[in-house]
């Protein structure tokens, strides 16, 4: 079944609004999958970068997303198809999947089911596409994905994705292709390696920075050119997968290189990087972008860096930013010390004062609830302190339940519990009523994420069961509670 006119028409409208080099057919065909709708997928720097690398290598890479109508509703009877030629996903010899985090597994299963492709590797035959997976999720827990894919590229895939995809067209059969992928840095083949994971790969510095090449007003980041200011992080926050010990530290991209890559038609630039605040030349880079008349976006800055270099906030405001975003990550100073976060109350207070002086509309503060050792007293400190912050700026508190990830010092830490997190969230909302906006991630779905982040193949298979049962939280709860989490390593 091909895409219906009800969807091809809107897709053509989407493509007509893109600013991008023309797609040229020819060369071996690969479907590049992001298991989300268009709006989210086109805001993914990693996805766009891999698409660019594949096309530059002469591969005919076409984009495949969850099919949806213009209202954003999933079309449950329409197979996933490529935007460039409306080819069904099932017709590609290989699907290269980019996945950011655990909950996207459910959408990948939906996409494959819609397309008539068996989600489980064991059920696919020679006429089905092989599935190669990469993306940020591979840094933490690839095991939960193992039943669904033929092979993965763990870590950075800038230098391995083209050889991995090309090998399919240069080897005699699937077995030879799997051996070729397994020989690559970070190449993980579940049926060959079992539970033994290779070391995550690190791309050569000369391939940096990743950057987008398609600008569209229909992205979650409308018409924004995305580019890495740096890659990795040199800090040691105990909850973070991208901490120094996992990712190998921070690699800085020189400002002159970044500036040379900004296309002439760009009006906004988004600087991406886990440790972007620590870029030693961030201020002059921002000033250069501002002086070109460009809008500039930075996902989040460290409050201590803003205090030491207030011109960071000043230049961003002059470039059009209306929200200043920082992270406290924990409810109290005591808990921040246990996370090795290094952010103090006075850093956040001075940042709030500065945001008011510079005319920011909102100070957004990210933090987590349900950390190990958290008490009601920590929550009371958060309420007291946030009320103090609100005296200087309009505060929006972005709250996410803590989810322990593999390959971090907090690997294996328990989930606080849905009821407990919801109770503390309610305590927070009551305490901050009329003083700060509280934007919270669902405790229920955070528990699902936790089960997958700490899980293995059994939890991955439970997601398949839950999706097939209807995909509601009750289905996930029933399926996941019937499994047992594997013991954390060590």
* Main β-sheet description: 6 strands, mixed
Any idea what the radius of gyration is? 23 Å
CATH architecture classification of the largest domain: Alpha-Beta Barrel
Distance between the termini: 49 Å
Helical segment tally?
Answer: 19
Unreliable spans are none
**Basic shape:** globular
Q: What is the top-level CATH class of the largest domain?
A: Alpha Beta
Question: CATH H level of the largest domain: which superfamily?
Answer: Aldolase class I
Question: Biggest sheet: strands side by side, in what order?
Answer: 2-1-3-4-5-6
Determine the mean pLDDT.
93
Give the structural class: alpha/beta
- The figure for the number of domains is 2
Quote the beta fraction: 5-15%
Q: Per CATH, what is the topology of the largest domain? A: TIM Barrel
- Helical percent range? 25-40%
Count of strand segments: 15
Describe this structure in words.
The longest helix is centred in the C-terminal third of the chain and has 14 residues, at 345-358. This protein has 490 residues and is α/β, with parallel strands linked by helices. The protein is globular, with a radius of gyration of 23 Å. 36% of the residues lie in helices and 14% in strands. It has helices at residues 5-16, 38-41, 45-56, 104-114, 161-170, 174-182, 190-193, 244-247, 255-261, 282-291, 303-308, 311-318, 333-338, 345-358, 376-389, 418-431, 443-453, 457-469, 473-481; strands spanning 29-33, 60-64, 94-98, 130-134, 151-153, 187-188, 224-228, 230-231, 251-252, 268-272, 295-298, 323-329, 362-369, 395-401, 436-440. The chain has 2 domains: 5-193, 3-Layer(aba) Sandwich (Rossmann fold); 223-454, Aldolase class I (TIM Barrel), CATH 3.20.20. The protein has a 6-stranded mixed β-sheet with strand order 2-1-3-4-5-6. A 4-stranded parallel β-sheet has the order 12-13-14-15. Helix 15 (376-389) packs parallel to helix 16 (418-431) and helix 17 packs parallel to helix 19 (473-481). The mean pLDDT is 93. Strand 3, helix 4 and strand 4 (130-134) form a beta-alpha-beta unit.
């Amino acid at each position: 079944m091909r895409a219906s006119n009800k969807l091809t028409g809107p897709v053509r409208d989407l493509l007509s609004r893109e600013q991008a080099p023309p797609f040229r057919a020819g060369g071996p065909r690969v479907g590049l999958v992001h298991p989300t709708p268009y709006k989210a997928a086109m805001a993914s720097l990693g996805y766009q970068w891999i698409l660019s690398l594949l096309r530059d290598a002469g591969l005919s890479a076409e984009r495949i997303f969850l099919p949806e109508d213009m209202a954003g509703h999933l079309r449950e009877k329409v197979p996933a198809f490529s935007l460039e030629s409306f080819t069904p996903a099932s017709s590609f010899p290989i699907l290269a999947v980019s996945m950011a985090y655990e909950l996207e597994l459910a959408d990948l299963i939906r996409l494959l089911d819609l397309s008539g492709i068996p989600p489980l590797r064991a059920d696919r035959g020679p006429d089905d596409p092989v599935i190669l997976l990469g993306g940020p999720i591979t840094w933490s827990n690839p095991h939960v994905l193992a039943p669904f894919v033929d092979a993965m590229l763990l870590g950075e895939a800038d230098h391995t994705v083209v050889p991995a995809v090309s090998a399919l067209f240069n080897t005699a059969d699937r077995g030879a292709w799997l051996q070729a992928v397994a020989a690559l840095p970070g190449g993980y083949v579940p049926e060959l390696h079992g539970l033994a994971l290779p070391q995550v790969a690190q791309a050569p510095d000369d391939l940096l920075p990743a950057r987008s090449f398609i600008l569209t007003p229909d992205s979650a980041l409308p018409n924004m050119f995305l580019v890495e200011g740096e890659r990795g992080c040199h800090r040691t926050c105990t909850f973070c997968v991208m901490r120094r010990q996992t990712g190998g530290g921070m690699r800085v991209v020189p400002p002159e290189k970044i500036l040379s890559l900004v296309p002439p038609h760009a009006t906004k630039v988004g600087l991406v990087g886990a440790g972007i605040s620590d870029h030693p030349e961030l201020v002059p880079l921002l000033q250069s972008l501002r002086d070109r008349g460009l809008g500039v976006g930075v996902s989040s800055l460290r409050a201590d860096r803003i205090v030491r270099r207030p011109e960071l906030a000043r230049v961003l405001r002059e470039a059009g930013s209306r929200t200043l975003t920082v992270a406290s990550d924990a409810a109290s100073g005591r808990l921040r010390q246990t996370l090795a976060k290094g952010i103090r109350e006075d850093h956040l207070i001075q940042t709030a004062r500065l945001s008011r002086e510079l005319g920011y509309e909102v100070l957004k503060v990210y933090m987590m609830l349900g950390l190990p050792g958290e008490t009601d007293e920590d929550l009371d400190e958060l309420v007291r302190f946030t009320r103090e912050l609100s005296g200087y700026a309009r505060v929006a508190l972005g709250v996410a339940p803590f989810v322990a990830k593999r390959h971090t010092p907090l690997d294996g830490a328990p989930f606080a519990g849905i009821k407990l997190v919801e109770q503390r969230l309610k305590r927070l909302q009551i305490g901050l009523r009329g003083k700060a906006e509280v934007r919270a991630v669902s405790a229920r779905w955070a528990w699902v994420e936790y089960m997958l982040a700490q899980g293995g193949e059994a939890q991955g298979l439970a997601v398949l069961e839950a999706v097939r049962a209807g995909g509601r939280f009750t289905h996930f709860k029933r399926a996941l509670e019937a499994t047992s989490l594997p013991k954390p390593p060590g």
